[in-house]
């Protein structure tokens, strides 16, 4: 492992296969094996088409392989923490999809074990690698916008998920807004002090039946007094709406949506242009590539992860606080909430 | 007064003179007189240059003129309610600058008297007439965006006012955000149920000394569950930032800033375009003309005002509730608040 | 005439009335009288509604009025030169609509007489006053684009004129492109050396029957070697398309179309925005006001006109050369052509 | 060769290596070997890093390999025709970089031989695959713009090439504008009838010393009467300027430049956004991938090439005619010119 990281992927669902395809063509990786608890003929055929000889039903086989330097954990969320612990004990570096878990206490324990094992852990908040948002981050860091006062994040999905997904998702805040919570922390480089959630069920009564919301505006107050507002919807009929704005004492920067082409068509009835790129696979295509490239670089050059376990934990805590605010109708102070949820968090 | 309304202006400050210049060139108006308590040589010269023979120190002289059909109240806010009452009792139609007063009880009484006198009362929320926001309203009314779910209003001033202005302004919510509260109600055509304010003092400690804020994010929840979020700043260094977005079940519409020219310049160092129009006189130039044209039309055609006294009162109530939320750090339900502040509001 | 110019308008068609309405509300003007050879009841009513007592059938009555400082010549083109001569001999300053005439020789004589009479003459190339193009001019003059290499002018009408208009228009180059020829000279501040025209009849065979074109691309070569390309169409179904680009050694500047609002609407089927402003009355509304304001300022401050008789003559010459190029299919050198058409041009 | 094409690359310069890197990760290709007359240690190391065992100094070795289905000709232009002939005689399908040659007669002969050999020949006009221009093509083909009247192509390089390159380039029309000539034919799906060139040497006297131009506006007239205008510059200081517009009887479509991000930054001094992507490797990154994918698909599915030898020949003819027009200062009819240059062209 001088300039190449040998990896295995645990979990061969949509995101696991996406990573596999990206890893295959990157010289910094050697993808050796993959595991999937629910083996199908279709999966075997897929693995073969990618030249992946080793397909296991149990990820332990990957962890037991001494050639493996690192693993990608792409299993269902409720198994993430367990796999982190086992991978850490096997001495493998870890790339884990978000969220780390549904429970702050569980996350804390997993992170503690990874820390003790001395392995690198990166959480899959891929949007940090989006070229647009990365430019916002650079502008903030370079001080070109002065001191940030207001951050606005618009994050709307093109179409709502099905009931089964909603029931197992952990709710909109944990499943969807968690990306925006991470984005807010990433851009501000500062911690959130308070959360206020105004959620609603406006799109489909199914969400209400699942005790979930489909529409929300969440206000985050940072310790400096700066304010972030996030608006979410499970259904933007015109496509995946992903915009971010940072407003500061010296200026503002706005990242607009991406579109397939720049073409504008003018006719007798309308002037039209492309809708936003359809969904996350299209919009964050580059970011998915760049986050795995960054993971290899962190391992090889022994640098911190671009998105650490602590980052993953904080986003999860904010999501839990947002849900609490939604339930009570009141603002929630994050410090008190964190202490209640995972008293050992300070130990990290 | 068949096709022309004879008017007098009470108060010859900046806004009074702005209306005077607009009225002068409109065939639907005959501007006859103006009054100003603080008479100066400069004012006399100005009035002469506009061919305005009659300049009084007391607005009563205008109210006593039987030829006058309507008055424009452009005095300091703390005298608005009193002038409304006196003008109503004199049988004059009333165009009153915002806010109607600093006290809900006072506003209720003034509106009651105007109602009993049977005169038309229009409040100067000029932004309702801005071509961009009018188009948003039309899209909402025509159902082209479906049922509105989220409204986002960005409203930032180019430079902060001085301390004297801040002290007499009634605070940012009553002075500045009140426009946005009216815009939210105008676009949604629905009442606000709850207000949550997150304010901050980030620009100049002077605001804090005045017990005011300079930065805020306010969340309004409508009775239907739809959510509006407003972000305000007293200082956007790049110019007057006035954008509105309506997101609904069938689509979204975004009104961007206006700029002096469409020119984009590309050089070796940057690609640049114009900053937003500097401030409200430039941006809402057309709206100031259109609101006074609408007032004449309402009088001549005996139609309701485009922005009624009730609208003015509601925006004022929301501003008061926003301040209460800022003070307590908690969301404020508008119904309970309104009852407490002005129990007679239901009578209107 | 210290700070106010007393004017009469000769010709009360569309453009004459447009100027009348603009002049009426400008303090630098006193509009005293108007003349129109084809008197109608509708015209009398219009004049009355504007408070214009004096409506003559013969413009001579205006020229004979010693109070009149300046006249606006808004008659059919074939009478422009004659009115310029008569107004000049009467000592009146002259604002003349474009083109000055259909004949270079006739134009030269009229300009010679105006010059000898020492009156100010401004030609109505209103686009010089458009805020967008004015900004381009300022950028070029300030050297921000370096040395200009390529100028691109797109000029397309929303709908074709009728046959009667076409027959009396002098052809597309003299009627429509002449504005673009003036814009090219204005932006470059340099003379045209050669013209090449590629015209076509693609929209309506009527244009061909009238020996005219409805579509054209014209290449102008400047004496410095810089190149301008103009593309014209008599029918852009999406509206009035008026864009200009200047490309130079240090950068490029692009002036886009103007639109009624900035609103962008995104739905499940399309992302749309406003079409360009419909036609010249909407697009150049401000420019029409500004050019007459500039005329008064030039008279009062005894400064050169923003668009001189010489400018009018040059644009006319280029239009004639463009037609010659279209007829022969060959590039036409302007120097030889000018000498042939109006040998006395150097005398000016 | 059922679903995979085995290829060799003749010429390992910049473009040959670019293709190599694209081919390597495409499942439809097996890249077997590469040849380069000027072997260096650096090249050997590069080939090794790509896992390319076979690196020959003579392309014949590739042509002699019976496993090779197709070759990419990436050698200097003056050897293209010769390699086409040899590859065709060896029965290999051919992807040839543009232009095919510097001589129409030579090109005709090479195409004739390829035709007789029955091999597929694709010319590397990669811009046909650019997503923006492909959308323009689809709009034209679907009739959404009606009958095309005017096509405008802006094509400007970010920085001028060196003298050695200029001397061997065949001149700007053959080296650079040839892409635009192909784009014009591609979008119009029609042949060019006449060419008029207005060229200039405005950027660097070096171009003049090389008997070349650095700035040009070229007018193409199509057989239908539609007109295309191309403007070229060897130096746009703000980046690679690649815009195309199609204007037709039912509407217009404009393809703007591509930029790295959508971020717009507003400060007290300016509102800025990204410059265009730097040069062809960045802008046409996707197009380079897509053109080689299309070549494999054409071979596998036995379909015509997306850009045929005939297309390459026509663009070359137009370039020669453009140079002739520049030299004579007169428009050049393509039919007469083609006959003179390569009488056998009809035979294809």
TrEMBL record, chains A, B, C, D:
InterPro entries: Gfo/Idh/MocA-like_OxRdtase_N, GFO_IDH_MocA-like_dom, Myo_inos_IolG, NAD(P)-bd_dom_sf. Pfam families: GFO_IDH_MocA, GFO_IDH_MocA_C3. Keywords: Oxidoreductase. Residues 6-125 form the Gfo/Idh/MocA-like oxidoreductase N-terminal domain. GO terms for molecular function: nucleotide binding; oxidoreductase activity. The keyword Oxidoreductase applies. Residues 133-253 form the GFO/IDH/MocA-like oxidoreductase domain. Belongs to the Gfo/Idh/MocA family. This is Myo-inositol 2-dehydrogenase.
């Amino acid at each position: 492992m001088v300039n190449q990281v040998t990896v295995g992927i645990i979990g061969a669902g949509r995101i696991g296969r996406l990573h596999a395809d990206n890893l295959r063509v990157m010289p910094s990786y050697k993808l050796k094996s993959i595991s999937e608890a629910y083996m199908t003929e279709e999966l075997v055929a897929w693995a073969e088409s990618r030249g992946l000889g080793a397909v296991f039903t149990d990820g332990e086989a990957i962890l037991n392989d001494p050639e493996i330097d690192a693993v990608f954990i792409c299993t269902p969320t409720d198994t993430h923490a367990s796999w982190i612990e086992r991978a850490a004990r096997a001495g493998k570096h870890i790339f884990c999809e978000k969220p780390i878990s549904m429970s702050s206490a569980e996350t804390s324990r997993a992170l503690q074990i990874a820390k003790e094992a001395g392995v690198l852990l990166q959480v899959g908040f891929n949007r940090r690698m989006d070229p647009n948002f990365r430019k916002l981050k650079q502008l903030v860091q370079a001080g070109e916008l002065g001191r940030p006062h207001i951050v606005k994040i618009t994050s709307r999905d093109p179409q709502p998920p099905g009931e089964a997904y909603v029931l197992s998702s952990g709710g909109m805040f944990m499943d969807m807004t968690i990306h925006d919570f991470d984005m807010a922390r990433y851009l501000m480089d500062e911690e959130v002090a308070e959360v206020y959630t105004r959620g609603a069920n406006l799109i489909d009564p199914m969400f209400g039946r699942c005790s979930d919301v489909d529409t929300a505006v969440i206000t985050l107050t940072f310790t400096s007094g700066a304010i972030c507002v996030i608006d979410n919807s499970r259904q933007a009929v015109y496509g995946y709406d992903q915009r971010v704005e940072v407003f500061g004492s010296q200026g503002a920067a706005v990242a607009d949506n991406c579109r397939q082409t720049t073409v504008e068509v003018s006719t007798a009835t309308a002037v039209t242009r492309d809708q936003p790129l359809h969904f996350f696979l299209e919009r964050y295509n580059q970011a998915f590539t760049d986050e795995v490239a960054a993971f290899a670089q962190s391992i090889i050059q022994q640098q911190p992860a671009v998105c650490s376990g602590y980052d993953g934990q904080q986003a999860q805590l904010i999501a839990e606080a947002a849900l609490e605010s939604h339930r009570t109708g009141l603002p929630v102070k994050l410090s008190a909430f964190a202490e209640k949820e995972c008293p050992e968090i300070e130990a990290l």
